[in-house]
Specification:
Strand order of the largest sheet: 1-4-5-3-2
Number of strands: 14
Distance between the termini: 86 Å
Number of helices: 12
CATH architecture of the largest domain: Orthogonal Bundle
CATH superfamily of the largest domain: Transferase(Phosphotransferase) domain 1
Number of domains: 2
Low-confidence stretches: 142-146, 258-269
Largest sheet: 5 strands, mixed
CATH class of the largest domain: Mainly Alpha
Strand content: 5-15%
Structural class: alpha+beta
Order of helices and strands: HEHEEHEEEHEEEEEEHEHEHHHHHH
Mean pLDDT: 81
Shape: globular
């Protein structure tokens, strides 16, 4: 009798805990929705903790897609899904706010084909869990696999589709949305090869009628090579912040695999001057610009891509055009374009025919 009483008590305790988490997480999430879009967004389906645990086999290692990261493969309602769950290394004082921002922005853009579609979320865990359509993240750390066997046309297509997605973020809403974390780990391909942007934990909105917003310069987050210098040194966020990151993405799509360094706000022991110097030393964009200036462009291009060229002269012209566009994005050549201009230029380059 005592055994069943204890078992019932435990179940009731777990149910009460999940209800409490649902209410607390839901409050933060709704506050984010109100800030960003006055509470108006696509309907978001709520999944239970039991559904998530069953879909991932209790977050089993065999369903864990990337070691030390937070994505799991699962089956939910007879369809494959991606389940995003924060892992220990992400736990900070603002982890909940970041995840709710990811859910809120994902819900706003889910109708667009170039964003990873949010199917729903679960608020019954300590930190909310996202359920997304299934797609494969582009492999960017394995030199002999994935993107490193793609031809130039595929790389330009992916870049164009991500540029369209970023343009949408910048222009489709009453408040300009700045992604703040455009880099390969947030880009996915579905079964049709359509590129999709994800990862809105760091997303910042610019108030209506304004062109920038200032954030705490001491809390710089993201991948160091992809961070705009102005943002790093002053905390000023503009559309150019994303344009810079996208320019570096273009460069990484065409050049040899480059190591990147994570930059977190925990590096309080490093002075701002030292930090600025490290940014300048590590920037991919500075290295690409130097090679272009010295006429050594093809020394840095991915040899796998060069091997796949059909019409070498024509394809080299397209590669040079993309690289020059990337250097405009990073402020190394002429004025920095808007993302909608970048998307149009990539469309034009994609359609180039042999002259």
């Amino acid at each position: 009798m005592n055994f069943w009483r204890k078992k019932t008590t435990k179940k009731n305790s777990e149910a009460n805990q999940r209800l409490r988490l649902f209410q607390e997480n839901g409050k933060v999430f709704l506050e984010d929705l109100v800030e960003l879009c006055n509470g108006q967004s696509n309907p978001i389906k709520a999944y239970s903790a039991n559904q998530i645990l069953e879909a991932t086999d209790n977050f089993s290692e065999r369903n864990h897609l990337v070691r030390f990261e937070f994505m799991y493969r699962g089956m939910l309602e007879n369809r494959p899904v991606l389940i995003k769950r924060p892992v220990w290394k992400l736990y900070t004082s603002d982890t909940l706010e970041k995840i709710c921002r990811d859910i809120a922005v994902s819900s706003m853009v889910s109708g667009h084909k170039n964003f990873l579609k949010l199917l729903g979320c679960c608020l019954e865990f300590e930190y909310p869990v996202l359920v997304c359509e299934y797609a494969e993240r582009i492999p960017y750390k394995t030199p002999n696999l994935g993107m490193f066997s793609w031809g130039l046309g595929t790389r330009i297509k992916i870049a164009k589709e991500i540029a369209i997605a970023v343009s949408y973020l910048h222009t489709a809403f009453s408040r300009t949305m700045i992604h703040m974390d455009i880099q390969p780990s947030n880009i996915f391909l579905d079964s049709n090869g359509t590129a999709k942007l994800s990862g809105f934990c760091l997303c910042v909105s610019i108030p209506e009628g304004e062109t920038f917003v200032k954030v705490d310069a001491e809390r710089v987050e993201g991948v160091l090579d992809y961070l705009e210098y102005k943002y790093v040194t002053s905390g000023v966020v503009t559309e150019d912040t994303d344009v810079f990151s996208f320019g570096v993405l273009l460069q990484n799509l065409l050049t040899r695999n480059c190591e990147v360094v994570d930059c977190c706000s925990d590096n309080d022991d490093e002075s701002l001057f030292e930090y600025e110097q490290n940014v300048m030393k590590l920037r991919i964009s500075d290295r690409v610009s130097k090679f272009v200036e010295e006429g050594r462009v093809f020394e840095i291009l991915d040899p796998k891509m060069l091997e796949s060229l059909v019409d070498e002269e024509h394809e080299r012209q397209r590669m040079e055009a993309v690289l020059m566009l990337s250097l405009r994005c990073t402020g190394h050549r002429g004025h920095v374009p808007k993302m909608i201009e970048v998307a149009k230029e990539l469309r034009r380059i994609e359609k180039w025919t042999q002259r």
